[in-house]
């Protein structure tokens, strides 16, 4: 029977043999080799890159929040001042979040949004159908459900969510550039451009509640996923996971922004183009188009049959493209020569566009919707297609005079030139476009259908992004507000282009440099470039961060507090669209019109409400106010007494005068002035201040400060 005995204290150690020593040495050498491989492996590269990506993305989101705080002193101002700081339509959207959060129950809040009679006085509106406010519903629901009410104020939960989303946005731009360039340094350069071109990349730090603030992060996530899908041929499970992610981000993008359909149309053009020249497979483009259609139709359902989605041209164009693909077959176009390729591309392209217009016309006829006719007229007027007299249309003038819809000013391009973004982007875009054209021509010339093809035929992700950013650029150059869509893609293309590992490898092979020397030179040049733009731009960014301001608008605060304390909860107000959005948010009172302009009935209502700034008699203005049942009118001297600018006719009083057929205060072109008449009737907004008898018996001054005058609309005698 075995027993355990005490160990002898005088027992000697057995000497280690030579074989054991060799084993230890082998193990040590193997460990050292494994460590060496790890340090030079893609795993370490990924870990370092991912860490930098998360850090810089989060840093950008926090910096946007810091700029907002520095500009507003948001943490210390009163609640009414915080609400007033939500400018124009942003205040309107935020009011629905506030309404849902403050409702007695969640069900009551949703019911009040579906049967709203405050936003458009005398009319019950389904806000969920009319506006893209699902993000407010999601955030309002989360705030009610999560146990955070005693920790976070509703307004901070809202804005911090937006800024966190922009942190994710920054990570997405980093990741997309990394994917295209093959190195995380591409992401570093991209984020450097983003930081130093803040004013062109985003406006979230001063208008965070705009629809684009929620939508842009998702379109760029979708853009990155689409590039990934086009580049790699993955297994079935991975493919469906990738397509599901593309679908989710596309759905969020379309759901969160009323203008998403126009951006999705540009994406459809870009995808169709890379398919047409044979760079991307027809099957992949079909899958992406089906995702777009599914997203649009689901959004239509979620918005209770919103007609703007059903009659959107992107839906018609994709339908036409799918029909052309069905005729074309599952394979790409067969090309036998360069001339044959050009003729087929032009032919298929023209047929698809014409078919798209035919389907679009049919859809508009079936739906019988006219919500977007003002946009069509604006586009025609912008490019001089409309007759000068047709350009006097009220809606067209409002858009032409809106700074967000003018051609991109030169100083914006100058700003991007000074940070090296524009020259870098232009160089990469030029070289990439030439390479893309050469790739297509070489492929067509060789008439080869085997292999990856030359140059960019092996990189459909790059080809697609080059076409996409070009379309974004055309849109931004013609419509200023879309600079915030184009500039991020500029940062990605510029960063990924100068850091592209394939290009650097080709360059070092041409000069027959050693691989290690080439890598050292590549990283050295890239780091030197980052250092150069940081040296030039970082002082300005640091100085901007040190600028401390405070929101200060005592006249508007006084107005809102007077309305809240001195008028009935059901009182209705007429005035400028921008101001009434604030009245709706801060006081909850009924308003006659608002800045969300995608509705024909509301556009007609705005023309009537705007008569307070026209050359109209007291009797006519009173009749208009009674027609829209306005109990009070708010007159802003900043609008009424604004100085004319020759040849621009962009003051609101002049716009309303032109609409009424009156000659404006500003000088206009002879052709433009045909049909306009001079009138001796004084401008109502100015004349009413003196309360002469015709005015005194119809309007009563109830509140006045340096900026605003509020008049009660008296009953008709």
Question: Could you please describe the fold and organization of this structure?
Answer:
This protein is mainly alpha-helical and 717 residues long. The protein folds into two domains: 162-545, no CATH class; 554-713, Rossmann fold (3-Layer(aba) Sandwich), CATH 3.40.50. It is 66% helix and 3% strand. It has 34 helices and five strands. Strands 2-1-3-5-4 form a five-stranded mixed beta sheet. Helix 27 (577-587) links the parallel strand 1 and strand 2. Helix 11 (211-231) packs antiparallel against helix 22 (460-478) and helix 18 (373-382) packs across helix 19 (394-401). The N and C termini lie far apart (122 Å). Mean pLDDT is 88; it is low at 1-5, 9-16 and 448-452.
What's the helix and strand layout?
Layout: H1 18-39, H2 42-72, H3 79-84, H4 88-102, H5 106-114, H6 127-130, H7 134-145, H8 154-181, H9 184-196, H10 198-201, H11 211-231, H12 236-256, H13 260-276, H14 282-302, H15 307-310, H16 313-328, H17 338-367, H18 373-382, H19 394-401, H20 410-418, H21 421-446, H22 460-478, H23 483-498, H24 501-510, H25 515-545, H26 554-566, E1 572-574, H27 577-587, E2 590-591, H28 600-609, H29 618-627, E3 632-636, H30 637-640, H31 652-659, H32 670-673, H33 684-687, H34 693-696, E4 699-704, E5 708-713
Parallel strand pairs: 1-2, 1-3
Antiparallel strand pairs: 3-5, 4-5
């Amino acid at each position: 029977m075995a027993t355990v005995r005490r160990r002898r204290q005088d027992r000697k150690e057995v000497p280690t043999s030579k074989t054991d020593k060799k084993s230890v040495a082998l193990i040590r050498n193997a460990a050292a080799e494994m460590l060496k491989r790890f340090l030079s492996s893609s795993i370490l590269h990924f870990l370092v890159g991912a860490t930098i990506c998360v850090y810089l993305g989060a840093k950008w989101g926090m910096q946007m929040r810091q700029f907002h705080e520095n500009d507003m002193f948001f943490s210390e101002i009163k609640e009414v001042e915080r609400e007033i700081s939500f400018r124009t339509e942003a205040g309107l959207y935020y009011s629905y979040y506030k309404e849902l959060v403050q409702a007695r129950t969640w069900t009551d809040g949703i019911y009040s949004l579906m049967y709203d009679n405050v936003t458009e006085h005398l009319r019950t509106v389904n806000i969920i159908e009319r506006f893209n406010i699902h993000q407010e519903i999601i955030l309002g629901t989360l705030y009610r459900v999560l146990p955070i009410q005693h920790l976070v104020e509703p307004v901070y939960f809202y804005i911090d969510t937006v800024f966190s989303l922009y942190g994710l946005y920054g990570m997405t731009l980093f990741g997309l550039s990394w994917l295209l360039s093959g190195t995380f340094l591409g992401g570093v350069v991209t984020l450097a451009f983003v930081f130093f071109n803040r004013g062109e990349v985003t406006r979230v730090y001063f208008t965070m509640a705009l629809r684009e603030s929620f939508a842009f992060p998702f379109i760029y996530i979708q853009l990155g996923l689409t590039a990934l899908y086009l580049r790699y041929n993955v297994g079935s499970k991975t493919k469906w996971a990738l397509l599901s992610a593309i679908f989710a981000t596309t759905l969020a993008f379309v759901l969160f922004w009323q203008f998403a359909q126009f951006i999705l149309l540009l994406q459809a053009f870009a995808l169709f183009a890379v398919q047409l020249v044979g760079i991307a497979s027809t099957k992949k483009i079909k899958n992406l188009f089906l995702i777009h259609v599914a997203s649009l139709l689901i959004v239509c359902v979620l918005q209770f049959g919103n007609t703007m989605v059903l009659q959107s041209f992107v839906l018609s164009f994709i339908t036409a493209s799918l029909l052309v693909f069905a005729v074309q077959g599952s394979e790409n176009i067969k090309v036998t020569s360069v001339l044959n390729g050009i003729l087929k591309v032009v032919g298929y392209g023209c047929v698809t566009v014409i078919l798209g217009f035919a389907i679009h016309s049919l859809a508009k006829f079936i739906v019988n919707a006219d919500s977007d006719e003002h946009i069509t007229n604006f586009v025609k007027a912008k490019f001089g297609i409309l007759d000068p007299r047709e350009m006097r249309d009220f809606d067209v003038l409002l858009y032409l005079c809106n700074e967000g819809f003018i051609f991109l000013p030169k100083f914006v391009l100058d700003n991007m030139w000074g940070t090296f973004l524009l020259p870098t982007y232009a160089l990469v875009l030029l070289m990439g476009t030439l390479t893309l054209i050469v790739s297509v021509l070489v492929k067509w010339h060789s008439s080869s259908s085997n292999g990856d093809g030359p140059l960019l035929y092996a990189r459909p992700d790059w080809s697609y992004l080059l076409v996409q950013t070009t379309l974004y650029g055309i849109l931004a150059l013609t419509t200023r507000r879309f600079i915030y869509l184009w500039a991020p893609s500029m940062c990605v293309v510029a960063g990924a282009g100068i850091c592209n590992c394939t290009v650097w490898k080709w360059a070092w092979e041409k000069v027959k440099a050693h691989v290690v020397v080439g890598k050292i030179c590549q990283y050295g040049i890239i780091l030197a470039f980052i250092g150069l733009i940081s040296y030039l731009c970082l002082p300005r960014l640091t100085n901007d961060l040190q600028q401390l301001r405070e929101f200060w608008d005592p006249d508007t605060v006084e107005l809102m507090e007077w309305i809240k304390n001195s008028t009935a909860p059901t009182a209705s107000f007429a005035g400028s669209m921008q101001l009434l959005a604030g009245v709706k948010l801060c006081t909850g009172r009924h308003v006659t019109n608002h800045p969300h302009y995608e509705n024909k009935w509301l556009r007609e209502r705005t023309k009537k409400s705007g008569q307070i700034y026209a050359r109209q008699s007291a009797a006519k203005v009173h009749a208009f106010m009674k027609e829209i049942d306005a109990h009070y009118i708010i007159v802003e001297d900043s609008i009424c007494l604004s100085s004319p600018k020759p040849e621009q006719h962009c003051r609101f009083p002049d716009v309303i005068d032109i609409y009424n057929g009156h000659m404006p205060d500003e000088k206009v072109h002879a052709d433009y002035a045909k049909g306009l008449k001079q009138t001796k009737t004084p401008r109502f907004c100015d004349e009413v201040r003196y309360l002469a008898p015709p005015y005194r018996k119809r309007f009563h001054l109830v509140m006045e400060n340096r900026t605003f005058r509020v008049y009660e609309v008296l009953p008709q005698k």
